[in-house]
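# nightly structure sweep
# worker-07 picked up a monomer target from the shared queue
# config: single-sequence mode, recycle default, output format = structure tokens
# input follows
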Amino acid sequence: MKLLQNRSYRSKWKFILCIITILIVPVQIAIASNQSEDNNTNVNTEWANNPVVEEFYVAVEEMPASSDVINFNLTSMKCPNLLSYDLTTDSRLESLNFSINNECQIPATSFEYTTSMYTGNDNISRISWLGQPYYVIDHNNKSMNITGFLVDEGEDDTRLLREKETLALPEGFAITVSDIFIDDGDNVEIILTQYGEEKDKQIVNESEWYEYRSNMNRSGQTDNLILRFSVETLFCGWTYNFVKINSLRLISSDVLRINNEDILRFSLEDSRISWYEQPYCVIDDNTTHLTIARLLVDKDTYHTYRLKKGDILMLPDGYAITILDIDPYIPLDKYRVNDFGYGQFLFSLTRYGKEIDKKVVREIDSYEYTVDLNGNGQNDNQVLRFNIGEIFSGRRFDWVEINSIGLISSDVFRIENSDEINIILEGYKTNIENNGTTVTVVRDDLTKNINLAKDGSTTFMDNWFTVKVNSASDAVIISDTYEHPIFILQTADTYISSAEIKPTTYELVGAVEYLYSGYADVNLTSKDNPAILYYDLENAQGHETLNFSIDNNYDPPYIDDPYRIPADSFMYTTEIYPTRDHNDFKIAWLGEPYMVIDHNSSTVVINKFLIDERSDDCYQLSIDNPLDLPYGFNLTASINDSNIACFSLIKDGLEVYNTTARAGDMFQYKEDLNSNGINDNLILSFTVESANKPIGSVMINSLWMISPESLMINDGDVDMLATYKINIKNAGSTIEVRIKENYYEYIHNDIILKEDKLTGILNNTFFIRVNGAVEVVKLLNTTDTQQYEHELIKRRVNSDKKKMPDIMKNDTNRTDEITPDKTTPDVPVPGFGLFMCIMILLFVRTKLMEL
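# output follows
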């Protein structure tokens, strides 16, 4: 919302805003109070165990018959989810090059990583380091000091803050709106604190910038910009005034110094890694092993939990936060109570019902609970942390806000360097060139090649990228560990660029930027674009293609819809291929792997792969510890007196199959998927590893499962994919999808791309968005959230069995087994106040029209 230029009209709108504020604010508080005033609640939040660290393929190479070397030449243009690409400045200054020989080694002489400085649109010196953007504090021929961006938002990223409100930021920073002065200078007083200590106080005018600088390079001058944002607009309210800010940017106070000709040793301590598609936090590391703990909760400042006295926030692994007392009127040091109140509250931290900590914290403080997880005798491993937001005083009760909750498991695991996993943290050497603007990293010892883990993973540098070799050593995939995959593609006349997108239901996988021609050809394949289309590493097969063009060269031009995908340019294809043992056939369909049940020239029947694990992926089952599987399946196991395992497979509460098996046997559950009257199609299988009668548990491995629901694809089908026609070719081995033709209205079959709007293709499997400001077309795809939950036991991971001190999981007095009733979210609902607000707003509008 922008300010009106006419001051007389502005005063009228102030009056309207005041009336709305009078009606809305009390109603919201009253409704929130009625929801939980009488009874304290257990806030048993659904802590979804979705990985916050995921692996994404960025490059694939297959060993050619005529050569014994695979060359990887990765650039920001080709791999933007691995190497940083700045769309706004066309920065593509990172590259990574290495080779892999037929002995599964990276020759030391082939390894080279290069990155260079560039200037952003904000005239700030930046550099990409290991795929992430950094702020350059200073640089010369001998060294470079850089620091990471904690927040880096643009003009469209706005925040609305009311008077006396505090905005919590990373690393303990907080912005507090002390006072807003409207019609008396039109400015706002901002107080900046870090961990409760005042760092700065300024009065900033509307439409001007707030800037806080500090001395980060020991130059004696406060010339390094730490925090800045724009004060966009001031609003007048009856109870509160408001300020809208945008373009918030905050850099970290931790400085990374890169010296010329320095030997780098990377540490993964406190970093996050993806271990078999699950998120973990590294407790410590060395050249022989990693000690890791499961990452259970990882929330940011946007995830806020509001609690009142007596409320309990239930967390995973038996943890709970109980609010014992709230005092919203305790002032910050140096301020009077009636001038600047912060408040404080007392809480208790329990685990499995036993109190392990109790503390008083103030608004904008950060809380950390640390224990000894690595056996060094010191409580220096952070298990739980959260930030304190605002502390409110209500008419009927007070409440507090906490955010940025982080929690790791107290059970740690040790990953040994072996033939199946290799972690390369040492042996890197830096060179600073070009007057201190370019950094190159090579191997320190050029005579010592890097041995890759065969049929396993080798992780490099700061857990930056991973090289995976399949079991036959004839295909290699490079993967990274970012939350949103970003992929850049390149053609002769155009290049693909990218920018991060926040919604969690979409993944940004590419973008097309027009240069001069206004026409772009996009040709995607599984091998060239594994972040978008499916590539089967184990079988070294990838047969999906997606081709289309984007055109805005129409004559006469379409003013309202200038961007189109011509119907005749669009084609998606996929092919059936055999598995390596030739026992089954597989196919990729819209970026996902499927098992082929039946196929001919008119019909292809496929079922989606749900689980496909190896012999070192184990699960321990019992009557009391069932394995929950997708599509409502549930597997339990017991052991009879002969040490034979008895399995029962349940679906939607009903047993569908039971059998017995000994150690070494294979469990197989089959159904009739091709309608031949015989249950001959394998749905679920695993190997029985052991059956232990004394402890009453069964160990299984090599879990494999496909969906019980078949997808039938028919030749000439025009209904499965709206506006598309499916053709089956090559005796049922190839599926082709094109846009349906319409001879009389052919132009209307083109896909129209709306500016700044998402346009779905292939039943919204992918989305395209045209950014009209810079003529960028973004390609996105949807995420699949189907998951199953159970403790996965890795044979290569040995539990150190380090527990939290003084906590007994087998305590008979545990209270965490009781699942509290779910409470209604603390969200205001429409009521009488809202009705009165609408009526008065209509009345005011009528009066204004009469003026």
